Amino acid sequence: MKEVIIIGAGPAGITAGYELLSRGDGKYKVTIIEESSDIGGISKTVRYNDNRMDIGGHRFFSKDERVTEWWHNMMPVQGSDSYDDRMLNRHKKLPQGGPDPDREDRVMLIRNRVSRIYYKKKFFDYPVSLKWDTIKNMGMFTTMKAGVSYIAANVHKREETSLENFYINRFGKVLYSMFFEGYTEKLWGRHPDVISADWGSQRVKGLSILAIIKDVFARLSPGSKNRKVETSLIEEFQYPKYGPGQLWETAAEEFKKLGGNIIMNCKVNGINVSSDNGTLCVDSIDCVQDGQTINKKADIYISSMPLKDLVEGMDNAVPVDIKEIAAGLPYRDFVTVGVLADRLNLKNETKIKTLNNIVPDCWIYVQDVGVKLGRIQIFNNWSPYLVKDAENKVWIGLEYFCNEGDNFWNMTDNECIEFATEELIKMGVLTSKKDVLDAHREKIKKAYPAYFDTYDRIDELREYLDTIDNLYCVGRNGQHRYNNMDHSMVTSMEAVDNILSGVKSRDNIWNVNTEEEYHETAKN
């Protein structure tokens, strides 16, 4: 029986562990080591005063059938939910049927995807649509300028040497300046002209004005229910009843039932690498738990820890140039402020019915550069079960992007909540500080791997890591790639495929989410 150590109990780590034990014919003993006290990594669900927070928002949809089947194996889809049927009457029942009666709360709900941009106190569809409301909010003159700008961008394509050029090629200079430039700088703390276009290639993929126009006409054609649309244009998604952490906690339980072991509150700070006849291998790892350093050995190591920390833990075993690349890899850290209120000072002018008649958005993207706030989550709309009193209260998450150790990160909880409240009032989302009934702050380190500084040399780092015979790098931070949750899972599935089949190449693992198009089948 081969010993396997997996670093990290997020989606990539839990998936790798479950896959190895469920498909490994009893040949593997698997231990997952997790630094924190939570399962799910950034996909965890935070509980506070009987309300729940989804850190960053996690829509469950994937073009990969393996991933969808995996999710449904953990949590069957319950298309209609009694609460929503009674209060909203807007969910459709899927053919998969209801949940296992022994796990009645462990189900996926079907949710409407509504995300909009809040710009100069007006709502715009996200992505920007070609509706009359868009033209009215922009004004005819700005709309005409945007059209001319888009045509000009298509006539004179820019070399995509930066994220700025990537966006301008697809949307034109005017729309880029309105809806992408300021928000992107908020997100990364850098202007888009110094960020690699790779980020756009992975996150935006085929989205453009042309893709939006095609989708508008596709909606009008026969068979539109089964049309293919870009990921950013999907209209429904699945969501665990009590947030994404519920699925990963369930998967962790299933992993343990198969014989897996999870060690919590255990930080990996040393990776001991040696050379055996010219072949590099990880001999053991050093972990700190309860102040004590523990050495653990295994035959195979699967790492979802940040590449920066992984290489730093290898110390002098790594060539100087490789250490420089890893040390220079940038990250963006993340703060969410949960705010409980009786109501929001925003009118629901859509045709979508909601509890309290709140706006129906899952996310509201804040493009106004006059505030630091990046996005607003409305947890009621992700799932009413995230909110203790969803019929009478609104529970929102205010998302801020920052750097660990900067002034915003170092604020006290009260200072941060006060700052966030004042921004909501400035934007017109709340009327006064008295609207805030309760609040809570969460800080997440290394939430977003960034695409600047030494990122342009990451292929050199990857090539070196691939020479370590028994090490597999998976997941968002494990590959320093801004992957979605399903992509992180697939990296682990590919790694397990290689382990079980004896394939030495890591190309299939690193190549996950590098295709140019990422389509979803629309279900209307």
Q: Which short descriptors sum up this protein?
A:
524 residues; alpha/beta; FAD/NAD(P)-binding domain; 4 domains; 5-stranded parallel β-sheet; globular
Q: How many separate domains?
A: 4
Gross CATH architecture of the largest domain: 3-Layer(bba) Sandwich
- State the end-to-end CA separation: 48 Å
Name the beta content range: 15-25%
Total helical elements: 18
Portion of residues in helices? 25-40%
CATH topology of the largest domain: FAD/NAD(P)-binding domain
Number of strands: 21
CATH homologous superfamily of the largest domain - what is it? FAD/NAD(P)-binding domain
Which structural class should the secondary elements be placed in?
A: alpha/beta
| Parts with pLDDT < 50 across at least 5 consecutive residues | 80-102, 229-233, 516-524
- Over all CA atoms, what is the radius of gyration? 23 Å
Whole-number average pLDDT? 87
General shape: globular
Major β-sheet, in short?
Answer: 7 strands, mixed
Strand order of the largest sheet: 7-6-16-17-18-15-19
CATH class annotation of the largest domain:
Alpha Beta
Oligomer: single chain
Structure, explained:
By secondary structure, the chain is an alpha/beta fold. The chain folds into 4 domains: 2-41 and 248-328 and 455-510, 3-Layer(bba) Sandwich (FAD/NAD(P)-binding domain), CATH 3.50.50; 59-113 and 235-242, no CATH class; 115-233, no CATH class; 331-449, Polyamine Oxidase, Chain A, domain 2 (Alpha-Beta Complex), CATH 3.90.660.20. 34% of the residues lie in helices and 24% in strands. It is built from 18 helices and 21 strands. It has helices spanning 11-23, 65-74, 82-87, 132-138, 140-155, 163-179, 181-188, 198-203, 209-220, 244-257, 307-314, 320-327, 379-382, 413-427, 458-465, 476-479, 485-501, 507-510, and strands at residues 2-7, 28-33, 45-48, 51-54, 108-112, 115-119, 122-125, 228-230, 236-240, 261-263, 267-276, 279-289, 292-297, 300-303, 331-341, 363-366, 375-378, 394-402, 436-449, 471-473, 519-521. It has a 7-stranded mixed beta sheet with strand order 7-6-16-17-18-15-19. Strands 10-2-1-14-20 form a 5-stranded parallel beta sheet, with helices on one face. Strand 1, helix 1 (11-23) and strand 2 form a beta-alpha-beta unit.
